[in-house]
Predict the 3D structure of the following.
Amino acid sequence: SIGSITKSFTAVAVLQLVEQGQIDLDAPVRTYLPWFQVADPVASRNITVRHLLQHTSGLSEFGYNRVHHPDTTLEQGVRDLRTARLTAPVGTSYQYFSPNYQTLALIIETVRGQPYGDYVTENIFKPLQMTNSYTSQVEAQANGMAQGYSKLFGFPVARNHPFRQYMLGAGYLISTARDLSHFLIAMGDDGVYEGVRILSPASVTLLKTPVFQQQGGATAMAWGFSQYHGRLWEQSAGADETFMSEMLLDTEGRRGVVWLMNQQHLLDPVRAGDQFNQ
């Protein structure tokens, strides 16, 4: 599982549909999901697709922190946001919130009339020759998916964490380092991999336009920027209970790094970042 790197794929999928005129970034979510509702009636009408992409919907885990049964459907998960309280006015603050991308996945399904996983497979995996990438844990396991581990008192313990289908578009795509390198190359070459375009240069630029500036870096639409060794690297990272992942791209030096680990511990991402900075 590549964790929240999945969000980069969801962002690309949305921008593909924007290019095709099927989604308007500044249209309210209710344009596509008329029943969409959060705890605030005004926000329910005003949250747009762009707000979801930029994590500026006003929603956060401080106002909604529910984990559903793995069998929960995507629509059921999004409908449950009717209990989500705003923790900032819509459009004013960057607050990372995975259900924003859960909602985007449902918008993709609604606009295209097909499952999110099928859309991503047909329009991103296949054009990028990502032949060992999956939207189904069962299919991935049948094709050799690695066993995941969690650290317990410093020792790795094999775990099979639940595959939450309702969060597929926010953190549950499955891939390999080689396949992700194809995606990274496309993101570094204005949307093209081996002559095949998945996104226009303008859309790639939009996806990478910073929303939130911070010391040593910035955050864009499911994409980030950080200073390493005196250079600005683009990045996307993810983690779940048993896997960790990161993609790094130095566009100036035309080099990239993809690393995946089938073990997770809360301290590991911090340690990995410290080692990379040395």
